[in-house]
Design goal:
The structure is a single chain. The protein is of the alpha/beta class. It has 14 helices and eight strands. Helix 9 links the parallel strand 7 and strand 8. Helix 4 runs parallel beside helix 6 and helix 13 packs antiparallel against helix 14. The radius of gyration is 20 Å and the shape is globular. The mean pLDDT is 95.
Length: 318
Amino acid sequence: MKLYLAPMEDVTDPAFRLLCKRFGADRVYTEFVNADALVRDVASTTRKLTISDAERPVAIQIYGRDTGSMAEAAQIVEQARPDFIDLNFGCPVKKVAGKGAGAGLLQNIPLLLDITRAVVDAVHTPVTVKTRLGWNDQQKIIVDLAEQLQDCGISELAIHGRTRAQMYTGEADWTLIGEVKNNPRMHIPIIGNGDVTTPERAKECFDRYGVDAIMIGRATFGCPWIFEDIKNYLSAEGGLSAQRSMDWCVNILKEHVERSIEWIGDERKGIVHSRRHFAASPVFKGLYDFKQTRIALLCAETKAEVFSIMDEIVNRWG
């Protein structure tokens, strides 16, 4: 029962990947890497190939809509020595899917399969795919598509239980993920993704749908220890982890701020980069009369300010 950190743009940089790895993530994924920009050697894109042995096993994810550039980009990625090269056929955002890449390829299955075959043939590193159920409710094609992708030679398939039309709204539907996993023709590992936010839900998904691994995305925001909590629950001893103190959680958030500043090389940018974690962290949810403190925390631009406000939160609500 493996747990993976989902690839997320502006989230899964080395700072956050290492934190999640420390708390038990069995595999981590980089941010999305634009194949065309990688081929053009755009510095901000090539920097995303930075991985370390401490993260392994680690996958580098690429996206694009051109067969040749995707194959060439995969060869460039291979030089960074990732454990897996992942193909992004699931990103639903307009700037990606709207240009025919990511989930946009779910409207052009022949091209999606051509890209997959070309990348598999171009590299020696195992190639994996992350995709969705289909383009919309009328085109949930994942059961057939999974077989076709397997025939292209991929090593694993991750499925987000939503269509592109859903974006991130509504509930993830795991029934088709389970159907893919239980298809007797499928022999590659199947990874389920979507709305796993608690240890109880993780266990339910493993038990009910039989997936080989679960990929966790937004539930990791401000909560990299979710992997440890789930693993404790799934362990032979069972049971939920002991309640974590606010002071302990805030110290992890501080560490993330420091790692982000170090990675980006600029204090203000590192703090801005970390803000989504403050905003989403369960540590600060449900605190009485917290609105003004929350605003101050999300507006702070220096490490001293951020840490001072966090200390005040612990003193008042911890």
